[in-house]
Amino acid sequence: MALTLDLRPVGISHDTTRRSVQLVAGLALYGGSMAMLTRSGLGLDPWDVLHEGLMKLTGLTFGTVTALASVAVLLLWIPLRQRPGIGTVANIVVISLTVDFVRLFLPEQDALGWQITNLVAGVVLNSLAAAIYVGARLGPGPRDGLMTGFAARTGKSIRFVRTVIELTVLAAGWLLGGTVGVGTVLYALAIGPLTQAFLPLVAWRGTRE
After folding, report:
1. pLDDT tens track for 2-59
2. Using CA atoms, how far apart are residues 9 and 134, in angstroms rounded to an integer?
């Protein structure tokens, strides 16, 4: 019988060093994997389709747009009565800085082989990164909190709320010129199962006391 994995947030005072390092490492890897996906040119996850569309519209860097979108999402937490944690703030800062840094050194890929390599590696590393930072249990990212907040307020399932949110941002991003392609489909199909597979390997299992 499989054990239930407890991922509820726990205060930073518990196992501070290990969990802080895990959080930052996971977020940095997440930002790096986002950069790989954007450079593949084969399609992005729904939120990054929106970020790329906004980048093209505003002329700002990808990381800056990601950070600003995260802050805008946090404002939606207010009526939903969601409370940010240290992981929420770190999510905005670390990911936005890392994705821009990696994009500086990782060029756009024109050869199909390298495009596929960046896409597949980006999806796998993105899943691992999500498991690492979520497994630190230091609070949800802005988009995760939006999803759980809407689910709690409406009584709808997490699956339903996530689907509605991601279809909405995907449509908005596509209309703004974001890249939708085979990578978008691959991400949608793979991110859940891969993250779930990685989580038991990296999740912190201390107490909530």
Report:
1. 446 777 888 888 899 999 999 999 999 999 999 999 999 999 999 999 999 999 999 9
2. 9
Give the burial class of 9: count Cβ atoms within 10 A of its Cβ; 0-12 exposed, 13-18 middle, 19 or more buried: middle
Give the whole-angstrom CA distance, residue 62 versus residue 17.
30
Contacts of 13 (CB under 8 A, 6+ apart): none
Q: pLDDT by residue (tens digit) across 68-80?
A: 999 999 999 999 8
Least confident of 55-59, 121-125, 190-194: 190-194
Using the CB atoms, write b or e for 82-114: b if 16+ within 10 Å: bebbbbbbbbbebbbbbbbebbeeeeebeeeee
8 Å CB contact between 176 and 57 = yes
Residues 6+ apart with CB under 8 A from 206: 10, 14, 15
